[in-house]
Structure formats: structure tokens, C-alpha cells
Specification:
single chain; mainly alpha
Amino acid sequence: MLQRAAAMPITASDPLLRIKAVERAIQQVKWMYPWHFRG
């Protein structure tokens, strides 16, 4: 999931697209596996 988000191409229309995709993937992983992020 994170690899796919990080592989998104950077476009002129939205240069932050890759960063947004990675942040969304991180939130999804945290939601799917919350016990890994307790601390």
C-alpha cells in the first residue's frame, strides 16, 4: 500500500499528490493495525 502510494508520479497540476497519497496510506495502515501504533 505504501509502495503504491510512493510510486505515484509527480504532476504539474498537483505536485503534492505523492505526499498526500503517502499520508492517506499511513492513516489507512494505522486504522487497519492500531495495535502497532500504541505507545
